[in-house]
From TrEMBL:
<dbReference type="GO" id="GO:0006011">
    <property type="term" value="P:UDP-alpha-D-glucose metabolic process"/>
</dbReference>
<keyword id="KW-0808">Transferase</keyword>
<dbReference type="InterPro" id="IPR005771">
    <property type="entry name" value="GalU_uridylyltTrfase_bac/arc"/>
</dbReference>
<dbReference type="GO" id="GO:0003983">
    <property type="term" value="F:UTP:glucose-1-phosphate uridylyltransferase activity"/>
</dbReference>
<dbReference type="Pfam" id="PF00483">
    <property type="entry name" value="NTP_transferase"/>
</dbReference>
<dbReference type="InterPro" id="IPR005835">
    <property type="entry name" value="NTP_transferase_dom"/>
</dbReference>
<feature type="domain" description="Nucleotidyl transferase">
    <location>
        <begin position="7"/>
        <end position="274"/>
    </location>
</feature>
<keyword id="KW-0548">Nucleotidyltransferase</keyword>
<dbReference type="InterPro" id="IPR029044">
    <property type="entry name" value="Nucleotide-diphossugar_trans"/>
</dbReference>
<protein>
    <recommendedName>
        <fullName>UTP--glucose-1-phosphate uridylyltransferase</fullName>
        <ecNumber>2.7.7.9</ecNumber>
    </recommendedName>
</protein>
<comment type="similarity">
    <text>Belongs to the UDPGP type 2 family.</text>
</comment>
C-alpha cells in the first residue's frame, strides 16, 4: 500500500475562540501565516507525502475554506491580463494541490468525533490525520516516515516531540518503550494533559497521526472524556492496551514545528517562517535585530 493510497483527514471545525474577534466570521485555519492560510501548509504537507485525496472536516464559517481551494477564474484572468505570473502561480497552486472533499462535523464534540465523521469517506483503508495547529517545516519530513512505520507494522502511528517537562501539561504525553534496531518507539500508554509530576515522559503528542480503519470501531464505543468531548487519545489508549492488535507506535520528530495554537505562538510562527524566506528574510532579519535591541 503506497502513500498515495492513504487518504488524509484535516479536522477544521474548532471554534478558534482564542483568536476572537478574528475568528468570529472566519475559521482559525484560514488565518494567514505570512501570506498563506494555515490550512494550506497542512494540505501541501499531505500532498508532498504523496497523498492526493484529502477530506476537510468543517464547522461553521465553512465557506472560506472551501472557497480557498476552489479555482477563481475571474481572479486568474485578471492576473493573467496584468502579466503577474508570480501571483497567478500562487493562486492556482492552492486549487491544484489535491482532490479535496468537505464534510460538516455539526457540533464540535472533540477530535475523536471529528475523525469519526471521516468514516464514510475513508472506508476500510488507512488514513492520516493532520491538525492545523501544528505546522511542520517542509524541509523536515515527518509524515512520510510515519506512513512507512504504519505500512511496516500495521500499527496506529503518532508523532511525538520532546518538550520541556514543565510544559508537558499542555499536551498529551506518551509512555514509550524503545524497539531494538528501530527509530520508532512502542507506545504503551497515553495521558492527556498530565501534571509534570504525573507525566510518563516528556514526549508530547503533536498533531499528526496515521491510523488503521479499526480506529473507527473504537471511536464508536468511546464515551465522552475530558471536557465532555470524544477524545482521539482515549481511542488510541484502547489500541495501545489491546493485546491482540498491532498497537500504537510513535515517531519522534526532531525537526522544526511551528505552533499556531495560541496568539503568542502564532506570532512566533509567522516571524520564524518569514525570516527564513528568501523574499522576506533579508529585509526582516536586520530589522528584527534592531527592534530587539530597542526592547
Amino acid at each position: 500500500m503506497g502513500a498515495h493510497r492513504i487518504k488524509a483527514v484535516i479536522p477544521a471545525a474548532g471554534l478558534g475562540t482564542r483568536f476572537l474577534p478574528a475568528t468570529k466570521a472566519m475559521p482559525k485555519e484560514m488565518l494567514p501565516v505570512v501570506d498563506k492560510p494555515a490550512i494550506q501548509y497542512v494540505v501541501e504537507e499531505a500532498a508532498d507525502a504523496g497523498i492526493h485525496d484529502i477530506l476537510v472536516i468543517l464547522g461553521r464559517n465553512k465557506n472560506a475554506i472551501s472557497n480557498h481551494f476552489d479555482s477563481v477564474p475571474e481572479l486568474e484572468v485578471k492576473l493573467m491580463e496584468k502579466g503577474d505570473t508570480g501571483k497567478l502561480e500562487r493562486v492556482v497552486k492552492s486549487s491544484d494541490l489535491a482532490d479535496i472533499h468537505f464534510v460538516r462535523q455539526g457540533e464540535p464534540k472533540g477530535l475523536g468525533h471529528a475523525v469519526l465523521r471521516a468514516k464514510a469517506h475513508v472506508g476500510d483503508g488507512s488514513f492520516a490525520v493532520l491538525l492545523g495547529d501544528d505546522l511542520i517545516d517542509e524541509r523536515d519530513p515527518l509524515l512520510t516516515e510515519m506512513i512507512a512505520v504504519h505500512e511496516e507494522t500495521g500499527a496506529a502511528v503518532i508523532a511525538l516531540m520532546e518538550v520541556d517537562p514543565a510544559s508537558i501539561q499542555m499536551y498529551g504525553a506518551a509512555a514509550v518503550e524503545a524497539i531494538e534496531g528501530s527509530d520508532a518507539v512502542r507506545v504503551t500508554g497515553l495521558v492527556e494533559k498530565p501534571a509534570p509530576e504525573d507525566a510518563p515522559s516528556n514526549l508530547a503528542v503533536i498533531g499528526r497521526y496515521v491510523l488503521p480503519p479499526s480506529i473507527f470501531e473504537v471511536l464508536e464505543q468511546t464515551g465522552p472524556g475530558k471536557g465532555g468531548e470524544i477524545q482521539l487519545t482515549d481511542a488510541l489508549q484502547v489500541l495501545a492496551e489491546s493485546e491482540d492488535g498491532p498497537g500504537v507506535m510513535g515517531v519522534i520528530f526532531r525537526g522544526r514545528r511551528y505552533d499556531t495554537g495560541d496568539r503568542v505562538d502564532y506570532i512566533k510562527a509567522i516571524v520564524q517562517l518569514a525570516t527564513d524566506r528568501d523574499d522576506l528574510g533579508p529585509e526582516l532579519r536586520p530589522w528584527l535585530k534592531e527592534f530587539a535591541e530597542r526592547l
